[in-house]
Here is the input.
Amino acid sequence: MEQKIPVFKQDEVYYFTDAQKHQIIKEFLSLRITKQMLWEKYTGRKEEKGAIVKWMRRLGYDMSKCQRRRLTFAERMVMAKTAINKITGDTNPEVDELKEKIKQLEQKLKEAELKAIAYSTMIEVAEEKFKIPIKKKSNTKP
Here is the structure.
């Protein structure tokens, strides 16, 4: 059985209700993504051709208050890296390094806890065997 793959034609028109348009505009204003990325999310096409801005004007959004600042180069690079990682299935190397560091620190913590238990057991055994008070009493003054 063959699967049907959707084909997008150049003259294909997308119809959205006013509620959907409001939702898309609010998402555009609240998230730090481009119009093209948002358009691709909802339609599957990369070219937006100014539809979102037209909706904003027609639906009464104040364009002077809705001006978004341009994304910095660093923000664009992060967005590009995440997009590439989604496509290739790779993970962020910084995240992998941090996960590895967490594992190492957890291992060191376990070793330190075991060491503390071993020292306290050793002191208790030495106190019992040699009858010498080794532990510092909490109520003594220096």
